[in-house]
């Protein structure tokens, strides 16, 4: 069986201790279940509703944490970049996958800068974009000579305060020839809340993840934390770390059952 791969970790680098704890736990699970694993954490959060929201512990300090996770557990790392200058900086610290946030998925200079590093580029589908339009984002990266591109479905805006996952987007984006990932936790966000703090529906994580694997998603993206209520960013839609094992076992079962169909 060709298993799905997993991109998982905290939303943002809160501390070295937290990242090492999460990475160790997830590495143990994915090794047992033969799931290829990428550790994800943003070294800085730029897309925040409120100016007083937590954005990080400092760029260099956070990138050093990602580097240590990679070296300690021998896993590839994923982090967001927000402007062209950040692409090479993250690459120089050994980040393996440069992630383009959904809000920035049409930014030509950002996509090209990421492509020129030679790193894998994971482009999240804009909440405002069709699956077909993501082919143009892929082309921008490919034109730099970089064909190592992944696409991520993370929901489409449904009114002002909700998102909906259209699973037709998975096979449509796979037509590009790129691996397609489903971002389970961000797809369950409830953005633009009156408080300025994004809400979410984590009780539906299993539902979205199982459906994604059933329709042929190559990878699953999710954010996880030992105590989401204490997370400094996006805690409202995170998966509690101790629930991950049960979810992954169910996903492996679905993958095994549907492998011949996709």
Describe the protein's topology.
Elements: E1 5-9, H1 16-33, E2 37-40, H2 59-73, E3 77-80, H3 84-92, E4 97-100, H4 108-116, E5 120-124, H5 134-142, E6 149-153, E7 156-157, E8 163-164, H6 169-174, E9 180-183, E10 189-190, E11 199-200, H7 205-214, E12 219-225, E13 239-240, H8 244-258
Helix pairs in contact: 1-2, 1-8, 3-4, 4-5, 7-8
Please summarize what this structure is.
The chain has 262 residues and is of the alpha/beta class. It has helices at residues 16-33, 59-73, 84-92, 108-116, 134-142, 169-174, 205-214, 244-258, and strands at 5-9, 37-40, 77-80, 97-100, 120-124, 149-153, 156-157, 163-164, 180-183, 189-190, 199-200, 219-225, 239-240. Helix content is 35%, strand content 18%.
The gross shape turns out to be globular
Number of strands: 13
What percentage of amino acids are in beta strands?
Answer: 15-25%
Radius of gyration: 17 Å
From the 3D coordinates, which CATH architecture would you assign? Alpha-Beta Barrel
What's the tally of helices? 8
CATH-derived topology: TIM Barrel
Q: pLDDT under 50 segments (min length 5)?
A: none
Q: How would you write the strand order of the largest sheet?
A: 1-2-3-4-5-6-9-12
SS-based class: alpha/beta
Q: What order do the SSEs take from the amino end to the carboxyl end, as H and E? A: EHEHEHEHEHEEEHEEEHEEH
